Amino acid sequence: MEPVVLVIAAAVLVIVAGLLAIYVLNRRSATVLEGFPSKYPEDKDKACLQNFNFLSEVVQLQTNKTVDHYDVTIVGAGPGGATCAYYLSKAGWNVLLLEKKKFPRDKYCGDAVCKTGIEILMDMGIYDSLIKQNKGLVADCGGMVSPSGLSFIGRIKEGLGGIPAAMAIKRTHLDEAIAMSAKRVGADLQEEASVSEAVFCKEAGLWTVSLEDSDRKFKSRVLVCADGAPSRLATQLGIVTRPPDSTCSRAFVEGGTHCFDADGVVFYNKELLPGYCALFRHPNDELNFCCYIIPGNPRVKSEELADWHKFILEKDPSIVKALGDNYKIERMKAASLRLGGEKVSYGNHVLLVGDAAGMIDPLTGEGIHHAMEGGKIAAEFLDEALTLGNYDVEVMKVYHHRWMEKFGSDFKWSMLFCQMLYRFPILIDAATAAVQRKGDSFLLKWADIMTGRVPKLNMLRPEFSVVITYELIILLLTRLLGRPVTSTKKVN
Ligand SMILES: Cc1cc2nc3c(=O)[nH]c(=O)nc-3n(C[C@H](O)[C@H](O)[C@H](O)COP(=O)(O)OP(=O)(O)OC[C@H]3O[C@@H](n4cnc5c(N)ncnc54)[C@H](O)[C@@H]3O)c2cc1C
C-alpha cells in the first residue's frame, strides 16, 4: 500500500477516535456532577425530621445541622411531584409537598397506568394493596382497533418481564396513594395549599414560596414545579414560555350499561389521527372513555374537542358496537396535554417534573408513568446535588440530560411517527394485521414501544419492520384487488 494512503488512513482513524472521545466525554460530563464546586457544604447533612413545623422554630438536629428551611419544596402532589417527594424523603431529605386540592381529588385522565408506572408502584410497596382493595384493575384482555376496522384483542396480563402491561385506576385512588406514601416516609404533605408565587433570594440561596388566601410562607433550597400541564409556576418564573399543546376528553360510562367485554382497547379512528380514543375498564365495570387530540392533523383542532368526543361516540362503528344502545355516560370533562418535552426543565435552584416539563409522549398522550419516572430521576439527581451542595443552573441542567437520555429524547421519534400515522393510516392497519398474525407476545412488545418502555426505533428491528412491511404489501394488494379487509381476532 502507498505510504500516503497509510498516512491518510491513520489521520482519519485519529480524527474519528478523537471525535468519539469528545462525544463520550461530553456525554459523561453531561450526566455526572463530578467537577462542580460545593457552594452550600452544610446542606449535605441529612435531617431526619418528621411532622416538624418549620414555621415556628429553628431546630438543632442530631446531625448538628441547624435548619430553618426545607431542602426541597415540591409544588403539586400529582404522580410526578408525589413520586419525587417519596424518593427524596426516603433518602432522608426535608421535603415539603404542597398540593392545592384535598385528597382524594379527581384529575381528568384516561386512568391507564402502564408498566413503568406499575413498577414504581411496586417499588413503593403500594401496588398489591391497591389491587387487593379493588381500586385498580390489571388489564388482561386488551388490544387495538385500526382505522379500517382490523382488530386484535389478546391476553396481556402477564407483561414481558412479569410486570403487567397496564392497569386502570381512578386518579382519586392513585394520586392519594402515592401522596400518602410520600407522607409516610417523611414528606411534609400540606393539602389545600395553593402556591401563588415563588421568589428566589440569590444572597441566601433560598426560595420563599407563598400561598393563595394565606399568610403562610415556606423557605427551601430547591424548588420543584410539578403543578401539571398548565405549568403556571414555571411560566411565572420564565422557564416555560408556551401554552400546552393539546387537549383530551374524559367521560365515565356506568358499569353494567355497556357491551364492552375487554379491559383496555385503543381505537384509531381515521378522521381523528394521529389522535385516538380509548376505553379502559375499572374494577366496578365502569368504563373510562377518552378522546385524545394529538397535534399534526390540520383538520382536528383542540378547540373542537367536544365535537370530536361526540362524533366518535355516535359515529365510530367500533365504539358504537362496544358501548351498545343503552349505555349511560357522564358529561364530558377535559384537560390539557403538554407533549414532547420542554426544551428547558431547569433553572437556578429549580427543576420541572411531569406534565409541567411536558413529559407526555406525543404518540399516546400518556404521561403518568413518565411523570413518575421523571419524579424518581429528579429525586435521585437532587439526592446527589444536595450532598454536593450546588444548585447552579449548570448543575440543574444535568437532570434535564438524565431524563432526556432515559425517555425524553424518544419524543422526537414519536412526533415523526405521528406524522406518518396521520399521512399513512394504512401503517396502523398493517401493524394490527401483524399483531393478529403474531399474537400476544408481539402485542406486548408493541405496547412496550408505544409506551416508551423501550425506544421507538425498536420498530425498525426486523422482528417488527419485516412483519409489518409484509402485511403492508398484502393490504395494498388486497385493496388494489378491491377486496374487503375488515377482520377481528379475539381471545376467548
Ligand atoms: C383527559 C386526559 C386523559 C389522560 N389519560 C392518560 C392515561 O390514560 N394514561 C397516562 O399515562 N396519562 C394520561 N394522561 C396524562 C396524565 O394525566 C398526566 O401525564 C399526569 O397526570 C401527569 O402527572 P403530574 O404529576 O405531572 O401532573 P398532575 O397529575 O396534573 O398533577 C399536578 C398537581 O399539581 C397541583 N397543583 C397545580 N397548581 C398548583 C399550585 N399552584 N399549588 C399547589 N398545587 C398545585 C394539582 O392540583 C395537581 O394535583 C391524560 C391526560 C388527560 C388530560
Which percent band covers the strand fraction?
15-25%
Low-pLDDT sequence parts = 50-64
Helix content: 25-40%
Largest sheet: 8 strands, mixed
Rg, Cα atoms, Å = 25 Å
- On the 0 to 100 scale, the average pLDDT is 91
Number of strands: 21
Q: How far is it from the N-terminal to the C-terminal residue, by CA?
A: 68 Å
Q: What's the tally of helices? A: 14
Small molecules bound in the structure, each named once? flavin-adenine dinucleotide
Global structural class: alpha/beta
Descriptive overview:
38% of the residues lie in helices and 20% in strands. The chain is α/β, with parallel strands linked by helices. Strands 3, 4, 10, 11, 12, 13, 19 and 20 form an eight-stranded mixed beta sheet that branches. The chain has an eight-stranded mixed beta sheet with strand order 18-14-17-16-15-7-8-21, sandwiched between helices. A hairpin with a 4-residue loop joins strand 11 and strand 12. It is globular and about 75 Å long. About 3% of the residues have low confidence. The structure holds flavin-adenine dinucleotide. Flavin-adenine dinucleotide binds next to helix 2, strand 14, strand 18 and helix 9. InterPro entries: FAD-bd, FAD/NAD-bd_sf, Geranylgeranyl_Rdtase_fam, Geranylgeranyl_reductase. This is FAD-binding domain-containing protein. It comes from Batillaria attramentaria. Keywords: Membrane, Transmembrane, Transmembrane helix.
